[in-house]
User: Fold this.
Amino acid sequence: MTEFDHPGHTAEPRQEPGLVAGFDRGAAGREVFTIRDLTKEFEVSARTLRFYEEKGLLAPRRNGEKRLYSRRDRARLRYVLMGKRVGFSLEEVREMLDLYDLGDGRRTQLQVALAKFQERAVRLEEQRGEIDRAIAELARASLEIQAMLSARANDEG
Amino acid sequence: MTEFDHPGHTAEPRQEPGLVAGFDRGAAGREVFTIRDLTKEFEVSARTLRFYEEKGLLAPRRNGEKRLYSRRDRARLRYVLMGKRVGFSLEEVREMLDLYDLGDGRRTQLQVALAKFQERAVRLEEQRGEIDRAIAELARASLEIQAMLSARANDEG
DNA sequence: CTAGCAGTTTACGTAAACGTAAAGCCCGAA
DNA sequence: TTCGGGCTTTACGTTTACGTAAACTGCTAG
Assistant:
């Protein structure tokens, strides 16, 4: 269990925002956010946000000591969380974000991201295959056990 | 990635033995095995076997310093590896093996194992659901990106 | 006798994503 | 003024399943 665990709130049916926020509905047109704002909006801990910053995923400005997150930071966070949901490591996400920052008109980066997404989808389908095989193996084992049980049902009662 | 990674040999089509070995075809009716025998037969490292012993999963006898594995040890190893494949932790496997060792006619243990197997299968199906959702999310994101790309295809030329 | 190989033990290292103190700063309320 | 929050930093702890290095013993071939 790593990739698809959401330790906190056990997968509630929250609307998971896409890459592009329609018109930022939700946090009505704010320009700047505190760490609390983001922890509440995205249900992540403050520790997590600082950790992401430490890893180069976010880079909020400061008001003295306090962190001030821009809408860009917020969009990046959204991207990070989406990446996590689909099984990218934070490192992979960071690479994509870094690429995006390089500029180049964004065309190349979009294509790179697209390719990564599709690779990831392939990998996920493989994982699904492995899970299917595991389920099948469990079913076989269960049958074996049931057979053993019914074999003993006679000579034991 | 944890549960379904087979770092070594990348999922070759080897025949994965069930819980009960038909008539021990393979290692023709041997009674005792060296650590090398088992590493080759099951494609695990010697380190792994010692680690499993350290964790109470195996308990081979000794010939001086050297480990001597019985057929029972070998069957337990088979069980451990099967358990791993379907996503049990070594700790969970150990608990099941310990239960089995308690005796009690084995009926209860078989039922316990059966229950755990079925729970595990349910959990695996949940994971598969999460993977399906992740795949869908990737597909959506890919579409978004393609849209952005084709939107830029014009004004960039 | 000497390599060399197989085996052993002990014990630290690794990866991932944070959790959890510990300790201190700053601000508003009572 | 003191207390409680909320924020900050630093840094060690957690989990799982081994990998890997170091240092030693014992056996066999040459």
About this structure: Chain A is about 60% helix and 5% strand. The first helix of chain A runs from residue 35 to 42. Strands of chain A lie at 32-33, 61-63, 66-70. The longest strand of chain A covers residues 66-70.
